[in-house]
Amino acid sequence: MCHAPMDKVIRKFQLGDPTPDREDRAYWLSRPPTERFAEVDRLRRLKYGAMGPIERVIERMEAPWVKAAAPSEADQEEAASERET
C-alpha cells in the first residue's frame, strides 16, 4: 500500500486569538468533573476496547535508598504487650 506524502502545514496565531485548542480546553473546564471523566472513559474504550473500569492499584514500597529506622522504645513495648495477650 503506497501512501502519498503529507503536505507540511504551518499555522500562525496571534497571542490572544481564540484557537481550537483554547476553545476546547475552555469548554471542558466549564464541564463538571463527572462529565469530563465520563468523556475520558469513553475515549479510553474507543482506543482500547471495553476492558471494564479503570483498575486502581495502590502499593506501598519502601525506598531502597532509605534505611529502615530501628523501632522506637514505644514500638517495642507495644509489640511486647501484643505478644503477651
Topology readout:
Blueprint (H helix, E strand, L loop, with lengths): L19 H11 L2 H16 L24 H12 L1
- Calculate the terminal CA-CA distance, rounded to whole Å: 76 Å
Could you tell me the strand content as a percent range? Answer: under 5%
**Relative helix content:** 40-55%
Low-confidence stretches: none
**What characteristic shape results from the CA principal axes?**
elongated
Assembly level: single chain
The number of distinct β-strands equals 0
Q: Can you give the mean pLDDT? A: 78
Main sheet specs? none
Discrete helix count: 3
- Gyration radius, rounded: 27 Å
Secondary-structure-derived class: mainly alpha
Order of helices and strands: HHH
